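Box 3.1. Reading complex inputs
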Amino acid sequence: MKKSIFSAVGLYVRDVLLGAWSITGSCMTAFPYLLRWGDLRKEVTEGYPDPISSKTADDLPTRSRGLLFNDIDRCTGCGECEKVCPSRCIKIKDEPGADPSKLWVSVFDIDFSRCIFCGLCVEVCQPGSLAHTRQYEGAAYQVSDLVASFGRGTVTDEHRSKWAILRKMSESDEASP
Amino acid sequence: MMNSDNSWIVAWSDSLGFPEAMPQWIYAAAALICTFCFVIVPCGALMSYFERKLAADLQARVGPNRAGPAGILQPIADLLKLLQKESRTEWNWKENIWLSVHTMALYSTLAVLPLGSMAVLVNTEMSVFLPFWAALVLALGTMLLGLGQNSVPGWFGGIRVAAQTLAGSFPALISLLCTGVRSGSFRWSSLAESQGFSPWDWTLLANPFQMIAFSVFVMSGLVLLAIPPLDGGLSMSDIHGGVASHLYGRRLSLFQFGRFYGFFFWSVITVVLFLGAWDLPVSLVNSLKSMGAHQLLALSELLWLLVKTFALMLLIIWIAKVNSRSRVDQITDFVWRVLSPFSLAALVGSSLWAGWRAF
């Protein structure tokens, strides 16, 4: 069926009006952005971790390098990690301990604000005390909060006197039998 | 040719120490230079800042914020940066000639730009059409600028600019006639007198056909001068800016400022034709005139005109920023098949309306 002239004109006018409507629509969509109205001003808190897309620690690859952890009981305080660290984020202070053949690791600080998670320190660690965990959420409110301390604390006079007593006891134990 | 009431220019120029019997053409030249330096250039700087801030807001960005408070000095920083760019070593005489022609054609419209009841230099029955013809000459200069560049973007850009101008000029001319039909004359002064301060006295709201004529006039001006969103002739994505593709540094800033000026003068003309010109409330005008404060009146008329012009330009920029740009063939198609019939309908409608009112 051939279209009549009126229906053709009607369709034409309808198309023009639709075009004008579309342009107005896009302008009005952008309007709140000009005045920062409504939803744009509202603070939006999104669920974290996102149940759909976020990775959990279990989804990480087996060799992923998360935040470092030092098992201080196994740490010998040799300082290899401190030497090898390219960003110099590890600080170690050793003192003679209760057992004179071993070192008392009084300070073992890792500054995660400088750490680049290269993993060199873990590779050189002889006793295998330093290791990457699977934790990767290290955000903090203060930069100073990013320093992780694993040290035993400085040796006090109290410690010394206690160790001296222990040493005497063990010596007398060895001597008595 | 000259507007007889140029007392305000005399009042301004007296303080500069010109001799008594000055030829009028010196006044005219001084007025043009003053208009360019103190109206057009500051407007261009302000508008480029507003445009960037508006675009930033629409896209949820910050926009310029480093140079000066809230980035207000950014246009100056941009200008200084462009001015110290090195110029190219080889000399393209065609490009230089046509860039000068383009620029001269552009700023020849300054002479016919109405900026207030006392700042109308050319006020004849033809004056409304003069900027229109200047826009056509400008398109010729732009086209030849592109053709003189010996590059594919230049050739295509030039031809596209010509196609857009030819398309845009027809509905622009027809919708221009609609305003003359209402005011009964094409003098700037009578066009302004036929309107008033209140929006209800504007040509835009006189009748529905004038509304159509207004939209057609604005859109066809955007096509004619290739201003976003209807700037397919200078499209970046397929012809690398067309005519502007080989321009950079000082020449590019000259060309870009020319494009801004084209946008500006078309908006000024639209405001004068449709949006109440420079008309202030009658009581205010009378009291200022009785006080003899002609300079203050001229300034406030200019400011009121510029405020409306800026509002119109920001509206167009808003539309341009949130809508996708059209291809050049879609633009010309739109002009011939939509704008032209609508402009003719507006002309017929507004003529009938005027005839009905006359009886």
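In summary: Chain B has a mean pLDDT of 82.
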